[in-house]
Amino acid sequence: MSTADPYGARDHARAMAGTRVEAMPTVPAAAPDAPGPVVWEETIAPGGYASRRLARGSRLRLVDLHGDACASMLLFNAENPLERLNVADTLKVQWNGYLGAGKLLLSDMGRVMMTILEDGAGTHDAFCGASNEASNARRYGDGKNYGLHPNARDRFMLGVAKHGLGRKDVHPCINWFKGVRIEADGTTTPQVGPFEPGRALVLRAEMDLIAVLANCPHVLDPRPAYSATALRATAWRGDVTPEGDAARNATPEGLRAFLNTEDYYLR
Prior knowledge:
This protein is α+β, with helices and mostly antiparallel strands. Helix content is 18%, strand content 26%. It has helices at residues 6-15, 87-92, 133-140, 152-161, 252-264, and strands at 38-44, 49-54, 59-64, 71-77, 104-106, 112-119, 124-125, 174-176, 179-182, 188-191, 199-205, 209-215, 231-236.
C-alpha cells in the first residue's frame, strides 16, 4: 500500500487499526490476572518508558517478562510534585541498603509514598541511579534519546514532561530487577543477570502518585551489547492501608512515615 500521498497514508494508517505488538498500552486498561479494577496495563519495550498517575491505595505490579528488564522508577506526589521520592532517606531511615518485601519508599518530606508488598526478584538497586547519554556512549558508542541505545535519564525526561515537569525534576531513582551489592571493601558489584523470566514485584501506593518508569540497561551493566527486555506494568484500585497493617507498624520509623502521610490526607 503506497503512502506517497495523503490518501494512501490514511488508508495505510487505518489498515493498522487493531494491530497489537508486545510493547504497548492496553486501552481501555484490562488484565485478567489482576485482583482488582484495572487502571493501567502496559508492556514497556526495551529502551522504552511510561508514566501514569496512580490513586492512593492502588497496587502496581511490575513483571520482568523475559529476565533482562531494568525498571528505573521516579515517584512524585501527584497533588504537589515538589514532593518526590528521596532514595537516600528511604535507605537511611530504614537502616537498610537493600529493598525488598515490607520496605517503604519515602519522600523528601518524611512521608511514605509506596510499600513493597511482594518481591519475587530480590535484586534491586538504590545506589547507582540512572544511565545517561554519556554513560551509554561510553559503553555502546551512542546514548542519544532517539538513537539505538537510549538512556534512562533522557527517557525520564520524556515521562515527566507528560505531567508538566522538566529536567530539574528528574531526581535519583530506584532500579528494580537489577541489583548491586556493596562489598566489605566498598566495591560495588552489579547483579544484572539475565535472570529467570517472570520475576515480579507488587507495590502499594500510599499517596496519590505520579510514577515514571524507564526500561534501559543498568548503568553498571558490563555487557558490550545493549541488553534489555520487555517490562510489564499493571495497576489496579485497592483499599487505603489500614491502621493494623503489618508494614505500617513494623518499625517506629516506618510508623512515623505513615502517620505523616495520614496527617497530610486529614486536610
